[in-house]
Write a structure and sequence with these properties.
Structural class: alpha/beta
Number of strands: 13
CATH superfamily of the largest domain: P-loop containing nucleotide triphosphate hydrolases
Keywords: ATP-binding, Nucleotide-binding, Transport
Bound molecules: adenosine-5'-triphosphate
Helix content: 25-40%
GO molecular function, one term: ATP hydrolysis activity
Protein name: Iron complex transport system ATP-binding protein
InterPro entries: AAA+_ATPase, ABC_transporter-like_ATP-bd, Metal_Ion_Import_ABC, P-loop_NTPase
CATH architecture of the largest domain: 3-Layer(aba) Sandwich
Radius of gyration: 21 Å
Mean pLDDT: 86
Distance between the termini: 50 Å
CATH topology of the largest domain: Rossmann fold
Strand order of the largest sheet: 6-7-8-3-9-10
Low-confidence stretches: 282-296
Organism: Nonomuraea thailandensis
Length: 301
């Protein structure tokens, strides 16, 4: 049966139960379970090729699982019209390319039709136009609202795409490496915009994919670590973003630090080179727990 009604606006925003995805006989994801409730802000972390974008595709109703159940906004994948369901999600893909020489405001409005170009003979209502302007202002893009897409910097595009994704007033916002390619200032502005957005919309849930801990907004509440398509750990950030688990996730010793402003930084620990005829050193030496130096942010165990 195809569902054509607006999804329920209560209950978990996302639920994945023992999900697997197989392509060409290869498991890209195995046995992934996850529940995202309103107001939660998840980070999906893992090395290149760990399966982050693949999982985001499942959570964003873009792909179907080979096994297991995925529920998006209370609807079970496989039993719903995914195109309609997707129109209730905000999906920020930094590789999104508008079709034609559109201005920022036009691109933001295409978030309502979930298309790359304005739909012929479709026009936004007055309310929708006002909402576009409000979101453009909220993302700090008012002065660039009439600029054509081609003239925008990478950071401006990132913020415009978040405004676009928010047009249908989604309960769920999916962000796939939103800070990729941004310089320091643009990244910081983007993260501040995401923090402000979350503070303003307390029931919005978000899932953000990255492989850089420095790109996590301070408002991140939960994290899932993926390695080779499997979930290594998932839960509240304080339990999951530890030096030990992140080292295991990236298969390299890493020291994690969370600063007073709630942001994370990761430093790769040097791995001593093996000398000829000596056994190779262990990938993660069994070191004592790091100790905070006076005036330094506390290391995360
Ligand atoms: N359609 C597909 N068919 C076969 N293999 C695929 C397909 N899509 C992705 N893969 C493979 O699945 C693995 C996971 O890819 P995915 O893009 O999800 O990783 P990722 O964690 O997002 O990586 P990155 O950080 O590099 O973006 C990769 O080895 C990739 O080559």
């Amino acid at each position: 049966m195809i569902v054509v009604s607006r999804p329920a606006d209560h209950g978990p925003v996302l639920r994945a139960d023992s999900v697997a995805l197989v392509r060409d006989g290869r498991h890209l994801l195995r046995d992934i379970s996850l529940t995202v409730d309103p107001g939660e802000h998840w980070a999906l972390l893992g090395a290149n090729g760990a399966g982050k974008s693949t999982l985001l595709g499942l959570l964003g109703a873009v792909t179907h699982p080979s096994r297991g159940v995925v529920e998006v906004l209370g609807r079970t994948m496989g039993r719903v019209d995914v195109r309609e369901l997707r129109s209730y999600l905000g999906h920020v893909n930094p590789r999104h390319t508008p079709d034609g020489p559109l201005r920022v405001r036009d691109v933001v409005l295409t978030g309502l039709t979930n298309t790359a170009a304005p739909v012929p003979r479709w026009a936004p209502t007055e309310q929708e136009s006002e909402r576009a302007d409000r979101l453009i202002a909220m993302l700090g893009m008012s002065r660039r609202a009439q600029a054509t897409w081609a003239t925008l910097s990478q950071g401006e595009r990132g913020r415009a795409l978040i405004a676009r994704a928010l047009m249908p007033q989604p309960r769920l916002l999916l962000l796939d490496e939103p800070a990729t390619g941004l310089d320091l200032a643009a990244r910081e502005q983007l993260l501040a915009s995401i923090d402000a957005l979350r503070a303003r919309h307390s029931s919005l849930a978000t899932v953000l994919v990255t492989h850089h801990l420095e790109e996590l907004p301070a408002t991140t509440t939960h994290a899932m670590l993926l390695r080779d398509g499997r979930c290594l750990a998932a839960g509240p950030v304080a339990d999951v973003l530890t030096s030990e688990l992140v080292s295991a996730c990236f298969e390299h010793p890493v020291r994690l630090v969370r600063s007073d402003d709630g942001r994370w930084a990761a430093r790769a620990e040097p791995v001593p080179a093996a000398m000829p005829d000596e056994p190779a050193p262990a990938a993660m030496p069994d070191e004592p727990a790091p100790v905070a130096m006076p005036g330094e942010p506390a290391p995360v165990p």
